[in-house]
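To the structural biology subgroup,

Please find below the input and predicted structure for Acetone carboxylase alpha subunit AcxB, which we are adding to the shared reference set this quarter. The sequence is reproduced verbatim from the submission form. If anyone notices a discrepancy with their own records, reply to this email rather than editing the shared folder directly, so we keep one authoritative version.
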Amino acid sequence: MLAKNAPGSLLGNGKTLQAFRSEVTQRTKETGFYNGLSSLPFRESDPIGYEKLFSKIRGGLVHARETAKKIAASPIVEQEGELCFTLYNAVGDCILTSTGIIIHVGTMGAAIKYMIENDWESNPGIAPGDMFTNNDCSIGNVHPCDIATIVPVFAHGKLIGWVGGVTHVIDTGAVTPGSMSTGQVQRFGDGYQVTCRKTGVNDQPLRDWLHESQRSVRTPKYWILDERTRIAGCHMIRDMVEEIIAAEGLESYERFAFEVIEEGRRGLQSRIKAMTLPGTYRKVAFVDVPFKHEDVQTSSAFAKVDTIMHSPVEITIRPDASWRLDFEGASRWGWHTFNAHHVAFTSGIWVMMTQTLVPTQRINDGACFGTEFHLPKGTWCNPDDRRTGHAYAWHFLVSGWSALWRGLGQAYFSRGYLEEVNSGNANTSNWLQGGGINQDGEVHAVNSFEASSCGTGAMAIRDGLNHAAAIWNPEGDMGDIEIWEMAEPLLYLGRNVKCNSGGYGKYRGGCGFETLRMVWNAEDWTMFFMGNGYMNSDWGLMGGYPAATGYRFEAHDTGLAERIEQGLSLPLGGDLDPTEPAYEQHISAAARVKRDKQCMTTEDCYENHDLYLNYLRGGPGFGDPLEREISAIADDLNQGFVLPAYAEKVYGAVIAQDAKGYWAVDATATETRRLQIRAERLQRSQPTREWMREERERIVTKHASAPVQQMYASSFALSEKFLARFKAFWELPADWTLNEDELGVPVYGAKHRMDLSLLPDVHTVVQVEE
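Predicted structure (tokenized):
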């Protein structure tokens, strides 16, 4: 019998956690089956017992989530459902997860693996009743506001697994208030950061942790209750596992804990074989980082540069249904908060996959083991410098993944699976954030999570859903106005569907929505905008248009206090047509108004009665808009989903409005107009070869904006393969190249970097091909 705390005592088999994980990893690599499981003996010999275990565990995980979230006071958790609980085996591989923000299947697993590989077993030790806390993005977390509580699970005197719970907190004590701040350009400004710290023993949080963590953030009450939410859920799940083992036996549980992961891998492969055609699918995505604007204040001059994120993907589906996702050519990480760890990237894609490719409750690490990922080192999705900021990693993640969805949509379509086709996800923004002294006289921060209900992309059979979900949480909810007004000193003057926000197409992308907020009873209040404005990050599919980009509206010195006192009209409802502003008619003529495409800003001061428009984006469209049903166009007009001018210009509709305001579409005249539009398209079209000759000349002479050139230059510097492919495609001269040094823009960090793995006594865990 091994003595307590002796090497190998945790597992009761003489092996350390690190050695055991190494064996599992090696068997998986050598055989292609998780842990070498070429068969599933428990499932095959006792299918009823196997399914009974699955049902108990899955039900317990979901029950714990739904119960624990009632403890939280934060609307982000209680209203929007921004939490998740996941069960892991002893080596940190996910067995099953609850509903919610399931990107954290991988991120909490990465934290467990980091503890294993860095010998937490001996120091600080792992014992029953311990609790660990992590939000470190350099080891796999998405961004610092996702706080994870991780609890070891013991049975019969040995460690058999882990349970993790994560919530998205309102504030992390970053440079600026809110959970996802901008302005800081390195991780040192991202806020309170905790690396797998032991924060509790004997099921109780340590007092030094409680005191330190509360004073490290602006919203201690919410922080405390969020932690209690995570602890409660983790302990409920741990108790459930102990009850299952008492009833079914430890051997059955441990066999299930490994076999279900291999079953998940096989399930993915089966679906790929059934739903796609083998081949290579190439797509690309971009998004803007407009930092040169005067309303973006950074701490470092070298970060004051406009850049563009580049996310090319090559999807290779083989005849045996194995597949590879290759992001060769992605641009370099940057001096902003939009960088992402490779685990955040690889784990996050399963939120969409579980709605299309693997729509099953068996959500675990099996799908990840069934996928080959290539995320080149040094790119924005796999940084090679320990200084990178990650506070708003979603800006790049959401945008970068859109190429993947379009590629998969094409694969589904080619096999005839039309319902699964998704033309892409909305850019889940704007993010209203800020802080100061709230209506209760307390230091406070806000992060409106209304972005949980953006429009969804159109499918190959129907329109996308209006203001329905977010790519990172399919169960998202915009939340009740009354709850948000209790949490934020911001009154609602309107909450409306955002007209024209969904991408046009045979099937329209789902519309987003907008809320007009007025600062009320606050002091020293600041807010800022976060989202895409100058560029689309989703493109639509098969002729469908991208969703509308964002814009900002803010108004200061509005005179609304006087107008309210005098009973004059107020700016209520939606900003129907930004080209014909209406809000300005109901505020002081001397008000300072900002209306532009600068949708990324840093903190600005707001006084009581100032206005802020929170515009949540729509989804992209599918198919040629000229093929849209006449009745659908009429419905869009009458429900305020499309502006009349665009029904005419884009859909070719001939429309008329009666005295009661009802719109009708003339079917015969519309068909005639559509024939004219098709003829006009042909007239202004250009042969592809001719267009390519012109574009090639622009490339040879480097006739492009500085952000475009810098984007490609950073991709070329990281990948000779991508440069060679680019030059071959455009038939460029052998000596043609493009370097950042020649562009006249700051290149700080382009050549000299330090990876986290270079720190003393740090062993990073790499789960992708670099």
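Summary notes: The mean pLDDT is 95. DSSP finds 20 helices and 22 strands in the chain.

Regards,
Lab coordination
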